Amino acid sequence: MSFNLQKISYFFSQFKFYLTLDFIALILLIVAIYKIYKNRISAKKKNILIAIVFSLFFALITFSLGEAYFRFIYDEPDGLGFLQVSKNWQTKHVVFNNFFFRDRNFEANKKEGTIRIGVLGDSITYGAGIENVDDRFSNILQNMLTNSGYNVEVYNLGKSGHDTEGEIKVYNDIKHLNFDILVWEYFLNDIEPIEQNKGTPIIDESKKRTRYIEFLSKQSYYFDFLYWRFSTKYQKTLKALRTADLNLYKDPKELERHEKDIATLANSIREGNKKVLTVIFPSMFLLGPNYPVSKKAAISPKDPVLTAFEHLASRFDQHPNEFVHNLAARKIFEKILPYLDDIESKR
């Protein structure tokens, strides 16, 4: 009962502007109809005026219903954080654990006989755009290994927005959990430095809109969704970000810095003879038969993930969807089995 009261209270607090506006519109509708009927004009003109008044009223009611839907019901992930509805998605589908990772609570002490696997990575590992964490590749891997008879714990260490530099800090903060195997997920934009990140100014510039558009977007989830749905700015921003990422690989100094970061992370993981498995997710926008690394990748160039663009989380989220996560989990499962068998043989 108290939960329902909280929901009702939240609804009224968030929607009082539109409720007030609709109430005022209803009063004005009644007054307008009354005045029209009292006015000494022809019946035809009265009918036209009444039709206009009713049309305006129902247009407002329709917009209010749309606003209620997008504000309280609809949710969609947004990889850039532009849309208001992405707040709903985060609230509904993201829960953090005792170590502030998007996973079940971690146990500090590892049980005897358990093989602990850490999955380190960025927003892909975190599961950006994935509603149910059980559909992420780390969780699918856990289930596959458990069903195959292995006594394992797979901990998801993904952090949205982190690059290799950030992952170094994440691992150093969490390595006391004593992992036996580290699965490291890598993506194209992980070359970005923490300081002077090239993507941040692009996103900040793309967020800018006229003062009136900005005001309306803040007041209305519905208007905000429609604006980004039909605006070309979103796709242009993604293209600019991809170009910025690729340009970093062409810069010798940036590439050298990044290689040092990778070496630092690798050396840190390998301390204590820990095993490392690296999985590289390809850029979904570079996929195709001529993708440079297709011939060397573990996944065949003929695989549908490399030829179709429908495997994105949503129109506003360019992260891989559940199909791709499932595919990645199966490939990791195949590669990690020898590591597990080797660990078990030495016990």
List the helices and strands and how they pair.
Layout: H1 2-38, H2 43-73, H3 85-93, E1 115-121, H4 123-126, H5 137-147, E2 152-158, H6 164-174, E3 181-186, H7 199-207, H8 211-219, H9 221-230, H10 233-250, H11 252-270, E4 275-280, E5 312-314, E6 317-320, H12 322-345
Parallel strand pairs: 1-2, 1-3, 3-4
Antiparallel strand pairs: 5-6
Helix pairs in contact: 1-2, 2-9, 5-12, 6-11, 7-10, 8-9
Please give a structural write-up:
This protein has 347 residues and is an alpha/beta fold. Helices cover 55% and strands 10% of the residues. It has helices spanning 2-38, 43-73, 85-93, 123-126, 137-147, 164-174, 199-207, 211-219, 221-230, 233-250, 252-270, 322-345, and strands at 115-121, 152-158, 181-186, 275-280, 312-314, 317-320. The strands form 2 sheets. The protein has a 4-stranded parallel β-sheet with strand order 2-1-3-4, with helices on both faces. It has a two-stranded antiparallel sheet with strand order 5-6. Helix 7 (199-207) runs antiparallel to helix 10 (233-250) and helix 8 packs across helix 9. The chain crosses the membrane at residues 15-36, 48-70. This is SGNH hydrolase-type esterase domain-containing protein.
Count of individual helical segments: 12
Estimated helix fraction: 55-70%
Q: SSE order, as H and E? A: HHHEHHEHEHHHHHEEEH
Overall tally of structural domains? 2
Q: Extract low-pLDDT stretches.
A: 293-308
- Secondary structure category: alpha/beta
Assembly classification: single chain
**CATH topology-level name of the largest domain:** Rossmann fold
CATH class of the largest domain: Alpha Beta
End-to-end Cα distance: 54 Å
